[in-house]
């Protein structure tokens, strides 16, 4: 009984390490990320690609209200997986920091700089009593001085840089697919095709334009932009990934997660 009580104490206290050096609330936050639908990032020589699974729980829901890809600045995009409300708070923080940098230094914020400002903010919530960690992971991609950069934020407040990555549900299977098919010499269109194929690999190799989101930041213009349904349909059709059957309502276990 005493051992169980001690376990519960470590379990509840975000600022308390367990005897084996673990912060259980941070680990639970990572589990919340796994319950969210998948988001993918791919870095290419021509730019970065962000692709997400946008599951619509009901045909009555407005598709535009399901937001998993966000513009942080003209040259930076962010994809999320996990709790929607937590993601929104971090996106708003990222946008404010981007504007502060522009006003203070007269230049766009660097992708790595913005990522570390976000992870520093996340890390504060692993040390303060009475708060909980953010139950969301972000993929941050952008262009700085003609160089594509791609980062991940973790609920612990740790940043990682990647060539290609996935967060959310089926992360392990998608990462295996990316590791097998990633080519550093691919262009932006190839990166879009790879991201869509990786997403389809855990969705019975079929996707609909309405059920996914895709955004790019290209080296030439250094501008964030999202693909239209027509552009997504073209990519899916060319890769033989287009689901031409009747759409089925997707089931989700938790209405607070995306």
From TrEMBL:
GO BP of this protein: proteasomal protein catabolic process; ubiquitin-dependent protein catabolic process
Keyword Cytoplasm included in the entry's annotation: yes
Transmembrane region(s): none
Inhibition and activation profile: The formation of the proteasomal ATPase PAN-20S proteasome complex, via the docking of the C-termini of PAN into the intersubunit pockets in the alpha-rings, triggers opening of the gate for substrate entry. Interconversion between the open-gate and close-gate conformations leads to a dynamic regulation of the 20S proteasome proteolysis activity.
Matching SMART domains: Proteasome_A_N
Domain Proteasome alpha-type subunits positions: 10-32
Region (Disordered) residue spans: 229-258
Family per similarity comment: Belongs to the peptidase T1A family.
Function: Component of the proteasome core, a large protease complex with broad specificity involved in protein degradation.
HAMAP family tied to this protein: Proteasome_A_A (MF_00289_A)
Protein name: Proteasome subunit alpha
Taxonomic source organism: Haloarcula amylolytica JCM 13557
């Amino acid at each position: 009984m005493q051992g169980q009580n001690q376990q519960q104490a470590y379990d509840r206290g975000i600022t308390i390490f367990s005897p084996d050096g673990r912060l259980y609330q941070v680990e639970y936050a990572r589990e919340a990320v796994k319950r969210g639908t998948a988001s993918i990032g791919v870095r290419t020589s021509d730019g970065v690609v962000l692709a997400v699974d946008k599951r619509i729980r009901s045909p009555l829901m407005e598709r535009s209200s399901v937001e998993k890809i966000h513009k942080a600045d003209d040259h930076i995009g962010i994809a999320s997986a996990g709790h929607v409300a937590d993601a929104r708070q971090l996106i708003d923080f990222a946008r404010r920091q981007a504007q502060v940098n522009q006003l203070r230094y007269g230049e766009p914020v660097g992708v790595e700089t913005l990522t570390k400002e976000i992870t520093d903010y996340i890390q504060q919530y692993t040390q303060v009593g009475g708060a909980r960690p953010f139950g969301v992971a972000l993929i941050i991609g952008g262009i700085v001085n003609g160089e594509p950069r791609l980062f991940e934020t973790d609920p612990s407040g740790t940043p990682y840089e990647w060539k290609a990555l996935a967060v959310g549900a089926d992360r392990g299977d998608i990462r295996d697919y990316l590791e097998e098919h990633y080519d550093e010499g691919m262009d932006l269109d190839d990166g879009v095709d790879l991201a869509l194929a990786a997403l389809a690999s855990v969705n019975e190799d079929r996707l609909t334009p309405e059920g996914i989101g895709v955004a790019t930041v290209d080296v030439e213009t250094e501008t964030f932009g999202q693909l239209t349904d027509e552009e997504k349909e073209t990519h899916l059709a060319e890769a033989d990934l287009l689901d031409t059957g009747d759409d089925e309502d997707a089931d989700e276990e938790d209405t607070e997660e995306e």
